[in-house]
From TrEMBL:
It comes from Streptomyces fumanus. This is ABC transporter ATP-binding protein. GO terms for biological process: molybdate ion transport. It comes from the Bacteria. Residues 1-24 have a biased composition (Basic and acidic residues). InterPro entries: AAA+_ATPase, ABC_SmlMolc_Importer, ABC_transporter-like_ATP-bd, ABC_transporter-like_CS, ABC_transpr_FbpC, Mo/tungstate-bd_C_term_dom, Mop_domain, P-loop_NTPase. Keywords: ATP-binding, Cell membrane, Ion transport, Iron, Iron transport, Membrane, Molybdenum, Nucleotide-binding, Transport. GO terms for cellular component: membrane. Residues 25-255 form the ABC transporter domain. Residues 1-29 are annotated as: Disordered. One of its GO terms (molecular function) is ATP binding. Residues 305-369 form the Mop domain. Pfam families: ABC_tran, TOBE. Gene3D superfamilies: 2.40.50.100, P-loop containing nucleotide triphosphate hydrolases.
């Protein structure tokens, strides 16, 4: 569920002993408060040099607003923004040591790939010759040396993304912002470009902040996830922590788990809304309980002698293809999602309205403190 990322890069200033929350330390230290009409963003965001942080959340959560605030394109109405100890709150966008890769790349259509990349160094005072020399080196690093003279309309989506990344990195930013950098790519190209982007981010020695709503992009590319809903941080941690311990319905759906909240008394969890669930963990007090849709077994009739400790009477609310399986959305005693093969769905005669019995073994649940 959580693809492996490269190990610590010896070229990076490592995290131990470096606290980005201290204003005299390198890295990002921000509290972003933006009031805009009926929407309020209020999130704390810190990152050490060499760290890739992904802002993850549903549409309208405030991710892009946060990114624009970091870039200086959205003024703060409160909070603070410090980068490597320097306050950036009042620094205009063009003067910030920040590189941005936009969702649609925003390459200059009248310039070649080389001159697109050279644009940044030129703006920072480099001569035309030096800027083009730097740009050529960056295109070579991106595997695009043969496309230096091509204009954006002649580039594929993956090539345009790499040119945009090279243009952002050519200014040697201390903060790299990526706004849905893979969203414009088709599925096949996305796979290849994601792998390349992961390599480039592993080599980046400053702070990188990635905005995405795609959990795979976030888990492959980021060291740490910050999940934002309704303008607030609802959970943050490593990709593995987030996947194993979701704390909201949105995160649970994102990582493919059924999630419930209740109160534990030993191995029994009485849900806030619904029946009890038996677990292998022995806990006390408020807890979450999670299990994957693949842990659910469905029966047309109440099973006799089933070993599962958890058994609920449900009704099929909907069916959809999910990879090579069928995902059943169930309502009833316990609303849940169940995955089963096409053959099993046909044998059970499943369709909306079909009554079923759902079972989950205690060993396939996971309970943890709320």
């Amino acid at each position: 569920m959580t693809p492996d990322r490269p190990g610590p890069d010896p070229r990076r200033p490592d995290r131990p002993g470096s606290d980005p929350r201290r204003p005299d330390q390198p890295g990002l230290d921000a509290r972003l408060v933006v009031d805009r009409g009926g929407f309020r963003l209020d999130i704390a965001l810190t990152a050490a040099p060499g760290e890739v942080v992904a802002l993850l959340g549903p549409n309208g959560a405030g991710k892009t607003t946060a990114l624009r605030a970091l870039a200086g394109l959205e003024p703060l109405t409160g909070g603070h923004l410090r980068l490597d100890g320097a306050a950036l709150d009042r620094t205009p966008p063009e003067s910030r040591p920040v590189g941005v890769v936009f969702q649609d790349y925003l390459l200059f259509p009248h310039l070649s790939a080389l001159d697109n990349v050279a644009f940044g160094p030129r703006c920072r005072g480099a001569s035309k010759v030096e800027a083009r020399k730097q740009a050529a080196a960056w295109l070579d690093r991106m595997g695009l040396a043969d496309h230096a003279d091509a204009r954006p309309r002649r580039l594929s989506g993956g090539q345009a993304q790499r040119v945009a990344l090279a243009r952002a990195l050519a200014t040697r930013p201390r903060l790299l912002l990526l706004d849905e950098p893979l969203a414009a790519l088709d599925a096949r190209t996305r796979l290849e470009v994601r792998a390349g982007l992961r390599r480039h981010l592993a080599e980046f020695e400053a702070v990188a902040v990635l905005v995405t709503h795609d959990p795979l992009d976030a888990m492959v590319l980021a060291d740490r996830l910050v999940v934002v809903e309704h303008g607030r941080v609802v959970q943050e941690g490593t990709p593995g922590d987030i996947a194993r311990h979701p704390r909201t319905d949105y995160i649970a759906r994102l990582v493919g788990l059924n999630l419930y909240r209740g109160r534990a008394d030993g191995h029994t969890v009485r849900l806030d809304a619904g029946p009890s669930i038996t677990t292998t963990e022995e806990l006390r007090g408020p807890v979450f309980v999670a299990f994957p849709p693949g842990a659910v077994t469905l029966y047309g009739k109440r099973p006799a002698g089933a070993s599962a400790r958890n058994l609920w009477h449900c009704e099929v609310a909907g069916l959809e293809t999910h990879g090579d399986q069928i995902r059943a959305d169930l309502t009833g005693e316990l609303p849940l999602a169940a995955d089963l093969t096409t053959v099993a769905a046909a044998e059970l005669g499943l369709h909306p309205g079909t009554p079923v019995w759902a079972t989950v073994k205690a060993t396939q649940t996971h309970a943890y403190p709320a």
